[in-house]
Structures are given as C-alpha cells and as structure tokens.
Amino acid sequence: MPSIRQFAHGLLFLGLLSRLPAAAAAADGGDETSLRRLNDDYVRASLTCDVARFRELLSDDFLGVLADGRVVDKTKFLVLAAQPPALKDFHVREVAVRLYGDAALVNDFATYRRVDGSLAQTRYVHVYARRSGQWKLVSVQITRVASN
C-alpha cells in the first residue's frame, strides 16, 4: 500500500506535469502561438484571396512547390492567390509546429470538397524563418493525398 509520502510525491509530480505546456509556451517566447496564428492567416488568406495578407506573410525570396509540382516564387504565388479557390468545406487538421531557433516548420493536413463534390486531402509543410524579429514564410510544399 502506498505511503502518505509516496502519495504526496505523486501529487507533486502530477502537478508539475500539468504545468509543462505552459512552461513550454513560455520557453518558446510565444513563438508556437504566433506560428499557429500565421498558419490560420495563411488559410484565411487562401480562402478569401487576400493577396495583401500574403504579401505580408511571404518573404521576398519565397519559393513554393504546389501540389501539381510547379515551383513558384512570391510574384507567381500572389497571382495564383488572387484567383478564387475551386473548393468548399475546407478544414485544417493535425497542425504541428516545430521550432529550430530562428526557423520553424508547420505541418498540417487539410480536407475539402472540390467543386464536383468529391473529397480531397492535402498535406502542407510551411517553412518559416525569423527575420528582423518577425516570422516570414520562406517556403511551402503542398502534397495531394491519394484517395484510398
């Protein structure tokens, strides 16, 4: 049977564990929160053709690899971003943020319906770099997920 001391140590350990997410957020200086917000902004800008927001989010040396394999720079990306997306019911899931000093990767999984109603899935990798104290999107890789 556990002693009172073991029970107290267990409670202390559980109390420390419950504080880990807050400690981790404090340790990253709020960067994860900022990057999640930027990811939300990217999605919102995509759905609303907000070229002005993309102009702010993307670094001048941005390069993206689209789902069809095309490589685009910032200028070409902004032209594409101005075109209304041919999709509906867009949902982002499985967002993961990984920090590496002044670089970060944001991965997510998105589901949506094409205009014809068929289901589509896509995985994204966004690469951010901290420049002059601000996170800028320097690269994106978009990959279609094959249907089962």
Please explain how this structure is put together.
This protein has a single domain, classed as Nuclear Transport Factor 2, Chain: A (Roll), CATH 3.10.450. The chain is built from 5 helices and 6 strands, in the order ααααββαββββ. With 148 residues, the chain is an alpha+beta fold. The longest helix has 18 residues, at 31-48. It is globular, with a radius of gyration of 20 Å. It is 38% helix and 41% strand. Strands 2-1-6-5-4-3 form a 6-stranded mixed beta sheet.
Q: How many discrete structural domains?
A: 1
**Radius of gyration over all CA atoms, rounded:** 20 Å
How many angstroms separate the termini?
52 Å
Q: What about the largest sheet?
A: 6 strands, mixed
How many extended strands? 6
CATH fold-type name: Nuclear Transport Factor 2, Chain: A
Which CATH class?
A: Alpha Beta
Number of helices: 5
Primary descriptors:
148 residues, alpha+beta, Nuclear Transport Factor 2, Chain: A, six-stranded mixed β-sheet, 5 helices, globular
Quick overview of this protein structure:
With 148 residues, this protein is of the alpha+beta class.
Q: Could you give the topology of this structure?
A:
Blueprint: H1 4-18, H2 20-27, H3 31-48, H4 51-57, E1 58-65, E2 71-73, H5 74-81, E3 87-100, E4 103-114, E5 119-131, E6 134-144
Parallel strand pairs: 1-6
Antiparallel strand pairs: 1-2, 3-4, 4-5, 5-6
